[in-house]
Amino acid sequence: MIAEIGRFLIALAFIACLAQTLLAWRGADQGGRSGAARAGAAAAEIAVIAAGLAFLLLIISFLRSDFSIAYVASHSHVDKPLIYKISGAWGGHEGSMLLWCWILALFGLGLARIGPKDLALRSRAVSFQGLLSTLFFAFLAFASNPFERILPAPIQGADLNPILQDPLLAIHPPMLYVGYVGLSAAFAIAAAGLVQRSGGRALASALRPWALGAWASLTAGIALGAWWAYYELGWGGWWFWDPVENASFMPWLLGAALIHSAIATEKRGAFPGWTVFLALIAYILSILGAFLVRSGVITSVHAFALDPERGVWILGMLGVSAVAGFFLFALRAGSLGEGDGFEPTSREAFIGANNLLLAVTAGVVLIGTLYPLFVDIMGWPMISVGPPYFDASATPLLILAAALMPLAPFLPWANGGAKPGLKQMRAALLLLPVAGVVIAFVWFGAPVMAVAAGGVGAWALAGAAMDARIHWQTAKSRTARLALSGRALAHAGVGFIALGGAADASRPADIHRALAPGESMTIAGRTLTLEDVRRADGPNFMADRATIRVDGRSTVRPERRFYPAANQTTREVGLGSDVRGDIYLSIGEARTREDGVMAYEVRAAFHPLVWMLGLGAFLVVTGGGLALCARVTGGVPAKVKVKVKRESAEAPETPAGAGSGQA
Amino acid sequence: MIVFTLICVALGALAAIWLARPLLGEGGPARMVGLGAGAVLAIGALAAYAVNGMPDAPGAPYEPRMAALRDVDPATLSPAEQEEWLRDVVRREPADLDSRRLLARYLASTDRHLEAIAHLEQALRLRTDARLLTDLGQIIMELNEGVMTPEARRAFRAAHDEDPARPEAAYFLGAAAYEDGDRNTAAAYWGGILARLEADDPNRMLIASRAADLLSRPSMGGGDPAALTEGAERPDIEAMIAGMIDGLEQRLDDDPHDVSGWLTLARARMMQDDPASAARALARGRAVFSEDPGARALLGALGDAFELEETDA
Question: What's the mean pLDDT when you consider all of chain B?
Fold first, then answer.
């Protein structure tokens, strides 16, 4: 019965989203404070509660191991640890789609409660969010229902893919979905603004916090995914330009462009059309990502089970969203207004240049990701586009963007003039650490691109430090200081990521050796001694755990696991971390060597400064969070306030209970 | 079904009221819109559910299903249910070594050797047991396509040390010795089993005939059999073989305490189409090993295989 109630709740959420779309639209037509607008918000509440309850029932079904539910039967097992029984609820396509839909509904409710202050715009945005939710809930209810039954029920489940049985994978998808789906709120506000003919500044002001929150969450999701890939897949890579990675990276790039473009639009009225266009396309690329991951058109370690029928559904949703968004944009972009002019040496100009670089990078990644599909459709010989293409095309663009990044905070708005900024920056001082890092990378024989990335990383770090130091004195209010901290941390994070990535690209070659207990090998000046290998079985796996001593001091314990229910073997990497980097060890099968001795295949790698990647991502997310705090607690800039006030004066009063949040 | 319907109707009605509430207070056409929207929500949700819904389909959570299976005779269950039945016992009573052993054997029979080995190793952590060790050795051999690996050998050795009377471990240790070319040790293991087993034990006959067959095969001393006869004409080959057999008999005259030698000689004589000499060789062997019932059983088994009358030396 639980399964059928869950299925009913999904149906209820689907109809509620439809009601949200229609009622909120009518409410927007009536100025955003009528009963229809409130009913639209009530529909969003119903969708959130129904989808949330359905998700809870799905988790309960996992905990009860109800294998009459096909999704549970194919993603769980009685012996699976509790945490993975819970995370199994979003470990496969159907369950993760329910989570996606729930988050969509939550953002719909968020817009209804703390959306744009202009109530008509808010109601229209709620309506658009309802439309997006309706599409996805329809897909969930009719093509990907997680409560689909399998009768007679198997006595045992097939278990969750062992590589997904990892604590990080329990939180990576929710973070990623908040990022993907959060961009839907920016889309909805942008589309609503086009319908309402809201000015560019007001629109940028309304959508920026949503874009900021979504982008910070997307950053966290991508970083967690990269970390997971680093230690779980067993080959030490954290980014491989895999199509699914690219699917998340493209909205991230456009999201980064959007939050910066929105600042320029909000403060100076610059790029209004571009900002709205980015808000539309960033979410459209999120749906494209969902299509790539879930349709089966591409092969990837991250992809869900292949199902072309689902692909057609998602393609349909992609089409509806894209056509609706771009049609509105083509029709109403003129209503966004034009900003004040600016000089080529102004802050707007640098933000614009960086936006261009980020957008071109996203385009380059899009072409590389979709080209094999295009080739396949055309019936040409199959090809794969991999790291060589992306390293040669996207990486230089990103290095260039990172090189420009520290300059903008030192440049004035509008009329520009680089001289005072450069003076303030003490550019020569910034070049010292850059030179130091470049020399160090060259000394260690790093590739050219890594030297460039390392130098840019140092440049960004020095720029962020100087930005914080100089502008802290002029930032008097708490909000200004929060915003400054957010900016400096996020930019420093980018610097750390560039440094960490450059260092990792310069790492020594991996070593593979068959070691018997007591034998040693050396990598990066460290002596690794295999002490023993023992059984270390878990609740649903069998494992051989090696104890490897590093330099006679610390020990690292990689494992080789076999999950019988899934009939799959995994390597659990052992990491020995210090400030210099990670000793990365994995262990393979026991084999008899040519000399007749039983030995274990040990793969050893050294990843220098890899911790900088994690620190960088953490700083970017923290910076995004602080900027969001500053934006939410500090209110909108004075210029926008004036405009919003004028619009509010024309609009009816805020209804009671409609929320007093700031956007 | 009734409870489910009531729950759905209640949920639908609650949602409808919640949706309509803001509009009902407005009066006029808005009120009608509210009522209509509420009704559409509830009815629409039921309709959307009905597209693929299965209101009659019961849930099947694991625990109640397993509780029901526990009361059923396992023999009446499907193979998947039998496996789960065993797993359930092992989960509830980890120290029940018999169930764990049965599960391991079932898993091995369905080509899931690694998991079977893991279960046996877990059982062995609880108690050292010759049967478990023997099963472990056998499953390791199955996993390695019949090859006696060092791990399998260790398991059989431990099983034999634990309970020397168990025939399985001794049989496989004999096979390991035979693979190593140590026929005397192999004969000692196999003869030991035969000496311990009752005369009417069906396993005794099987082991005896298999052991006699193996031990009677000519030993090439590690050389290539083809190399011995390479380039030789057929009469030369026959003469060469006859010479080798005579040489073997001579060696046994000098050192008669070699049961494998007597078995090989008897087999060779049969190959020469000389059953009388073969029977004589077996009789001589029996005389030499008159105090060793195991060796006598091996010699007897070969005689039975060749349908030779038992004669005196």
Answer: 85
**Burial letters A489-507, b for 16+ CB under 10 A, else e:** bbbbbbbbbbbbbbbbbbb
Element counts in chain B: helices (H) and strands (E):
16, 0
Q: What is the pLDDT of residue B222?
A: 43
**Alpha carbon of A575: minimum distance to chain B alpha carbons (Å):** 27
Task: Check residue A550 and give its pLDDT.
Answer: 92
Q: What is the CATH number of the domain that holds B281?
A: 1.25.40
Residue B116 maps to which CATH number? 1.25.40.10
What is the average per-residue pLDDT within B19-30?
85
**A-chain residues near B89 (CB < 8 A):** none
Question: A-chain residues within 8 Å CB-CB of B30?
Answer: 34-36
Handedness of CA B283, B289, B293, B297 (dihedral sign): negative
Give the residue-averaged pLDDT of A306-320. 83
Q: What domain count does chain B have?
A: 2
Query: Which residue among A4, A34, A66 places its CB closest to the CB of B60?
Result: A66
Which band of pLDDT confidence, cut at 50, 70 and 90, is reported for residue A417? low
Which of B126, B157, B188 is where one domain is finished?
Answer: B157
**Nearest alpha carbon to residue B46 among B3, B5, B17, B1:** B5
> Under 8 Å CB-to-CB from A364, ≥6 apart: which residues?
A390, A393, A394, A397
Q: List, for residues A330-352, the tens digit of each pLDDT value.
A: 998 888 777 777 777 888 889 99
Give the span between the Cα atoms of A329 and B146, in whole angstroms: 71
Residue B298: the pLDDT is: 83
Q: Is residue B103 included in any domain, yes or no?
A: yes
- Distance between CA A129 and CA A21 in Å, rounded? 7
Residues of A in contact with B22 (CB under 8 A): 35-36, 38-39, 41-42
How buried is B136 (Cβ within 10 angstroms: 0-12 exposed, 13-18 middle, 19+ buried)? buried
Check residue A657 and give its pLDDT.
32
Q: How far apart are CA A16 and CA B134, in angstroms?
A: 64
List pLDDT tens digits, range A89-111.
Answer: 998 889 999 999 999 999 999 99
Kindly determine whether residue A35 and residue B22, on different chains, have CB atoms separated by under 8 Å: yes
Q: Cα–Cα distance between A285 and A620 in angstroms, integer?
A: 21
Helix ranges (H only) for A475-539 are: 478-505
- Residue ending a domain, among B157, B172, B199, is B157
- Helix (H) or strand (E) holding B253, with range, is helix B234-254
Contact B150 A598 (CB under 8 A): yes
**Using one digit for the tens of pLDDT, what is the confidence trace for A224-256?**
999 998 988 777 788 888 888 899 999 999 999
Which structural domain range is residue B294 located in? 235-305
A518/chain B closest Cα distance in angstroms: 19
